[in-house]
Amino acid sequence: MVRPTSVAARDDARRQSLLDELIPLFHAEGFLVFSLEDLARRLGCSKSTLYVVAPSKEQIIQATVRESFRRSTDAVERRVAAEPDRGRRISVYLDAIAEELAPAGPTYFADLDAYEPAREVYRNNVRLAAQRVKELVEASGRRRLDPRFVGSVAGLVLEAIHRGAVEADTGLDDAAAFHQLAVLVDHATRTT
Q1: Do residues 51 and 22 make contact, with C-beta atoms less than 8 angstroms apart?
Q2: C-beta of residue 97 within 8 angstroms of C-beta of residue 78
Q3: Does a structural domain hold residue 30?
Q4: Is-contact 167 76, C-beta < 8 A?
Q5: What CATH number corresponds to the domain at position 177?
Q6: What is the average pLDDT score of the chain?
Q7: How far apart are CA 66 and CA 121, in angstroms?
């Protein structure tokens, strides 16, 4: 007899394995183009297996986008925690975000913008990132600019990067724009 906890553990392991495959697929090709049949075929599983992730295509998309941002946030925060210089943590944070988002292509970002539930996940992460920049400025001891202002500006720029406005105006892709934001914030918050 299979114990319920081993079934739950097996399902969780399968769910994580599917997410491991869905995240890079979505980053590379977006997600709105896929039907459940397409996803099952690409992952080499049945549609019913996909339901381990979530009970519908829409919820599979949401779960995958959420998990992608969760994993990225964890990776970014590990990098920040490893930086001993509190002042450098601001640029480490923004550069780490750029590196985490680098695998996500333009179709992924277009789909994030086009699909309201995914767009809301992204917007929530932008709000959290702006708050985190504010916290990092406060913790840095750099008081040249108000941390609330820096966080707010960072949030506005992050949103503009997502919308493609920065790339349209400058030609910088998302990763390069995040790096430039890191340089700008680092420079602006340095004490003289």
Answers
A1: no
A2: no
A3: no
A4: no
A5: 1.10.357.10
A6: 88
A7: 7
